[in-house]
Design a protein that fits this description.
The structure holds 2 protein chains of 2 kinds. By secondary structure, chain A is α+β, with helices and mostly antiparallel strands. Chain A has 3 helices and 4 strands; from the N terminus they run βαββαβα. Chain A has a single domain, classed as HPr-like (Histidine-containing Protein, Chain: A, 2-Layer Sandwich). In chain A, strands 1-4-2-3 form a 4-stranded antiparallel beta sheet. Chain B has 24 helices and 16 strands. In chain B, α4 packs antiparallel against α5 and α12 packs parallel to α15. Classes of the chains: A alpha+beta, B alpha/beta. At the A-B interface, α1 and α2 of A face α2, α3, α4 and α5 of B.
């Protein structure tokens, strides 16, 4: 199964250390291969370094894709995390 | 004997053996192995990754306890970086297909990643290359089975010699065994300089290649006050510096007696001495040194130290901490005073071809109102707890001052609506550090509650000299007659309008200028805490008519060399033993 969603970075600090750690932790809970796309770059959802290199700041629009049995569940959890601003202001 | 000149990052003299931190890349002894050896290399790799992960977990917990969660996040990230399956996968491929050794394969993959990082045009990410190097060294050390060279495990007092210190190293400094720092790179505002100053460790930075000039165990003399390191000094030099070390201590004891005494001239003119600080913790040392308040709290340090912009609550906590520590005395919080490049390391990418004349400081804040309001909100919330005053830096036009004041009013309204306490009559003043503000000081005096003269920037902008540029630094002189005339203009404007004028540049902490400044009419000076006892001594030794005579003569010179000679003569007469 292949799924695709969009999510906007809400928190002021953007996709930096802490949000990335949260994202990696959640992506690692699922079987599906998760990728995060921003502008012309894309990152493995389990790679802190690749995610950091997306340079996603507040207001950046991310495209999330997942391929695997639990792709839909994975993306639901991840878009919720991103849209909630990673629990930050 | 070699004498190396760098930049003074923290004052004092240290004499002791060098401890050269191996910050160079580890030399990898073997690059390839027989195919049959691959499983052994995989085992070595996995053991090293696991050992590194464990070290980082320990470091993360210890750092969280000592320095808080935000600093610990750095190591959590390093941990996650090592744990990433893709990293191991790439290295395993190199070992299995290319028959690389674990060390060579790992280092190869890390170099590839560092190159990718460097290729991204983003200041924040560029800084993160240091984190990758930190991780690389840690894992390589484990692969090669090297002993851990932690600064935490020193057994005798040493002078640390290194290219630079990584985040891991900076947090693990063992004060009891570190006499001083000598680094290849760095500046006066680097993290190492800050830590060194806070803990009273002499430090010299920007020494270029000190690591290659010094071998471990070699005797060093480090003069942090003058930015000098003497490698393998002769007996005469050691003797001379031991004396100056002792003199430094005697001087401190001598000056201590001034701490409790009021800062008045012999004819009873009060000159209030305030401290310049960057961190709340520094307030204690400032009061200990005799400061009657904080004349300049450089709030931007919060932004420099973080990997992301601090939240409102984090800013509030820091301000509140400082306000509580001054115990009711005045504390002037200067709003963020950073170049766009420094802010963007925390906020997002931007480019300014000429940062000193670019989008910086208050200009940046007025264009990024969300950030500015959040900052002001944190300051105002802290204002409920003491005598907080707000000061705007880098003002050039009256409109900027009005806009900034209007923003404060907006934030006050929001706080009022939210039912949050703050000081309603918080005084709002400004730095005068551009020639424009100095020339218009008469107009500014009608709208600002107080002035504080930033002579460092005022001198640079007036003389069009970047003092960090060694080719023109000789032109930098706060006693240049052009600068002094601006000072007189500002002081007179303040006096005419009844607006208090302080001076918070480095000039304020120098005995050379003290009497002249008092003679010109200043009654408030703000300086580094360690300068306060000495300035108080000068003030207590003089009278207002003496100071006025010195100011009158000083303003008569039209050449900065002659003026400097005059001031030196006056200072020497005053205390012939000390110069």
């Amino acid at each position: 199964m292949f799924c695709e969603r969009e999510a906007v970075i809400r928190n002021a600090e953007g996709l930096h250390f802490r949000p990335i750690m949260q994202l990696v932790a959640i992506a690692s809970q699922y079987q599906s291969a998760v990728r995060v796309h921003h502008n012309d770059r894309s990152a493995d959802g389990r790679s802190p370094m690749e995610l950091l290199m997306l340079i996603a700041t507040q207001g950046s629009k991310l495209r999330l894709t997942a391929e695997g049995e639990d792709a839909d569940a994975a993306l639901t959890a991840l878009t919720e995390l991103v849209e909630s601003g990673f629990g930050e202001a | 004997m070699i004498i190396k000149k760098g930049i003074s990052a923290s004052p004092g003299v240290a004499i002791g053996p060098a401890f050269v931190l191996d910050t160079e890349d580890y030399r990898i002894p073997r690059r390839t192995v027989e195919p049959s050896q691959a499983p052994e290399q995989l085992r070595i790799l996995d053991a090293a990754l696991e050992a590194s992960r464990q070290e980082l977990a320990e470091l993360r917990v210890a750092t969280a306890r000592r320095l808080g969660e935000q600093a610990a996040m750095i190591f959590a990230f390093h941990e996650a970086f090592i744990a990433e399956p893709g990293l191991r996968r790439a290295i395993v491929q190199l070992i299995e297909r290319q028959h690389y050794t674990a060390a060579f394969a790992f280092s190869n993959e890390m170099n590839r990643r560092q190159r990718e990082f460097r290729a991204v045009a983003d200041a924040y990410l560029k800084e993160r290359v240091k984190d990758l190097q930190d991780v690389e060294r840690r894992v390589l050390r484990n692969i090669l089975g090297r002993a851990r060279e932690d600064i935490t495990r020193l057994t005798q007092p040493v002078i640390i010699v290194a290219h630079d210190l990584t985040p891991s190293q900076a947090v693990s400094i063992d004060r009891a065994h570190v006499l001083g720092f000598a680094l290849n790179v760095g500046g006066q505002t680097s993290h190492v300089a800050l830590i060194a100053k806070l803990r009273g460790i002499p430090a010299v930075v920007a020494l270029n290649d000190i690591t290659s000039d010094v071998t471990g165990g070699e005797l060093l003399v480090l003069d942090g006050s003058h930015g000098i390191v003497v490698c393998d000094p002769d007996d005469a030099n050691v003797e001379r510096y031991r004396e100056s070390q002792a003199e430094h201590r005697r001087q401190e004891i001598h000056l201590k007696q001034f701490r409790g005494l009021p800062s008045v001239t012999r004819d009873d003119v009060r000159v209030t001495l305030h401290a310049n600080i960057e961190l709340p913790e520094e307030v204690d040392a400032a009061i200990e040194a005799g400061a009657e308040g904080v004349g300049l709290y450089r709030s931007e340090f919060l932004f420099l130290a973080a990997t992301r912009p601090p939240t409102e609550d984090e800013q509030y906590e820091a301000f509140l901490d400082a306000v509580k520590r001054v115990k009711g005395a005045p504390i002037v919080i200067r709003t963020i005073d950073l170049g766009a490049d420094k802010i963007s390391a925390a906020v997002g990418p931007s480019r300014d071809p000429n940062p000193d004349l670019g989008l910086r400081s208050l200009r940046y804040c007025l264009q990024h109102l969300d950030l500015f309001k959040q900052h002001l909100r944190a300051i105002l919330r802290a204002s409920a707890a003491g005598d907080v005053r707000i000061m705007f830096p880098m003002v050039t036009t009256l409109m900027e001052l009005r806009q900034a004041k209007a923003t404060v009013a907006d934030v006050m309204e929001d706080l009022e609506e939210d039912g949050i306490a703050f000081r309603h009559d918080v005084p709002i003043g400004m730095m005068i550090e551009t020639p424009a503000a100095a020339l218009l000081s008469e107009s500014f005096a009608r709208e600002a509650a107080f002035f504080s003269i930033g002579t460092n920037d005022l001198t640079e902008y007036t003389l069009a000299v970047d003092r960090a540029n060694e080719r023109v630094a000789h032109l930098y002189a706060p006693h240049n007659p052009a600068v002094l005339r601006l000072l007189r203009m500002i002081i007179d404007s303040g006096a005419a309008a009844g607006v208090p004028v302080s001076l918070c540049g480095e000039m304020a902490g120098s005995p050379l200028y003290c009497k002249m400044l008092v003679g010109m009419g200043l009654r408030q000076l703000s300086m580094a805490p360690q300068d306060i006892p000495e300035i108080k001594r000068v003030i207590r030794s003089t009278t207002l008519p003496d100071c006025q005579e010195i100011a009158r003569r000083a303003l008569g010179f039209d050449n900065d060399r002659e003026l400097l000679n005059y001031l030196r003569d006056v200072t020497r007469e005053d205390d012939p033993e000390r110069l």
